[in-house]
């Protein structure tokens, strides 16, 4: 039902197979009204939307129990997802049908992806109420999947309706996790995380991100996950990076009705616009004054189309970033649009191991490392762990240099200088049959982003496949110091000689306090290190 073609972080380019064809994910699924559409279905097809979502509850109210196939109602022969009325429950408190009726109805109208009638928890619900809503939703989900199996609608992967498991719980993360676990046990293959609209309106991106992670702690990455109501370009990159595959929203039209024009970094009322800062087909063909002077109905359609183009462009940018293996850079770059998104980036740090699962072991393109948060990239976390657990040195002396500009490390001039000095002593000692110091020195360098990099692995990915900023504040890189200390301890070095400069000296001195059992020397230049090696005064 779901096949993954490319992945980066927990974001995937996937193929979702439905009975009306394949949808490539991540995909934005526009919400359309079953009867009245301001933006025509033909227009949506032309824009390249391969899947639509409509409301089964409204369809039932409008057309009755013997409604036609939803594909005929919408005149759209591609995949259609139906929501069951959970949104109406969220807004009005309840609906006047039961979940059994909604389940039968959605199957009857030929929905490709259908949702059991849920009781959304929204945001800000007291715990006890949220618990009750979760249980009600689970009951509906259990009855629905059982009915689907009993009535033979579940005819394997290629046929029948895909039932989307409604994950509820809101900001009560343990409820989200519990809900996900129960739904997984029921046998659901597709998951839909509920009701984050209110969170997004309150810019509670960090809570939203933690909800996604809570669900993904339980739901395997092989199973696709939908995020309800995510219709703003701001939220899409992080949501994809954390493991969401599809999104639906009516924001494009709801905003348009309020005169709100979606920009990649936020929304703005068209009355406040001096220009149309966009090159979509709509904005390329009209000016801002013309847009304002249009009749209301005409203006709504134009703004809605522009809004859809903006959302689509965001999804396409995210997909391209996944293919190129630079989703991390893209998410960080986009997060700078809003302080609360920067705050939500903490989830990337908190879930490093999870994000590693789908991040390729090797990438063609060099990693660009600019900000302290980049030290937590999965590629770098993985590298530090490799050093920590796999690299063992039997030498008693460690020479630790500042990261050179040349890569790999062993081609750098200072590596060669140190190596030549050691070899010269080695040859000399060999003749005199003294201690073979050359065999007893481990050379490595330290990188703020990577931590300690021993010479043997300095050409292993990503050590020589990265471009990083040179002027860093070392105290912002705690992973580096942890990596150095761990490396020294686990290899039982007796002496460590560290090259420092004005920027690193203070910070590197803290190693001394943490490793009192080791003799540590600090040198401000290579010549001093060589002099030390030659004099053997260490
Ligand atoms: Zn536009």
Task: Write a concise synopsis of the structure shown.
By secondary structure, the chain is an alpha/beta fold.
List the topology elements.
Elements: E1 2-8, E2 11-18, E3 21-25, E4 27-32, H1 41-46, E5 52-55, H2 56-63, H3 70-74, E6 80-83, H4 86-92, H5 99-108, E7 113-114, H6 127-150, E8 162-167, H7 173-185, E9 190-193, H8 197-201, H9 205-216, E10 225-227, H10 236-241, E11 246-249, H11 251-257, E12 260-263, E13 266-269, H12 281-285, H13 288-293, H14 296-324, H15 327-335, H16 339-344, H17 346-350, H18 352-356, E14 367-369, H19 378-390, E15 397-402, H20 413-432, E16 441-447, E17 451-454, E18 466-468, H21 478-491, E19 495-499, H22 505-514, E20 519-523, H23 526-535
Helix pairs in contact: 5-6, 6-7, 7-9, 11-14, 14-15, 20-23
This protein binds zinc ion (ZN).
What features would you describe in this structure?
The active site is at residue 83. InterPro entries: ArchSynthase1/Queuine_TRR, TGT-like_sf, TgtA, tRNA_ribo_trans-like. It holds the Pfam family TGT. By secondary structure, this protein is an alpha/beta fold. It has two domains: 2-353, Alpha-Beta Barrel (TIM Barrel), CATH 3.20.20.105; 367-535, Rossmann fold. The protein contains 23 helices and 20 strands. The strands form five sheets. The chain has an eight-stranded parallel β-barrel with strand order 4-5-6-7-8-9-10-11, surrounded by six helices. Helix 5 packs across helix 6, helix 6 runs parallel beside helix 7 and helix 20 runs parallel beside helix 23 (526-535). 45% of the residues are buried. Mean pLDDT is 91; it is low at 154-159. The structure holds zinc ion. The site of zinc ion has 6 residues, from helix 12 and helix 14.
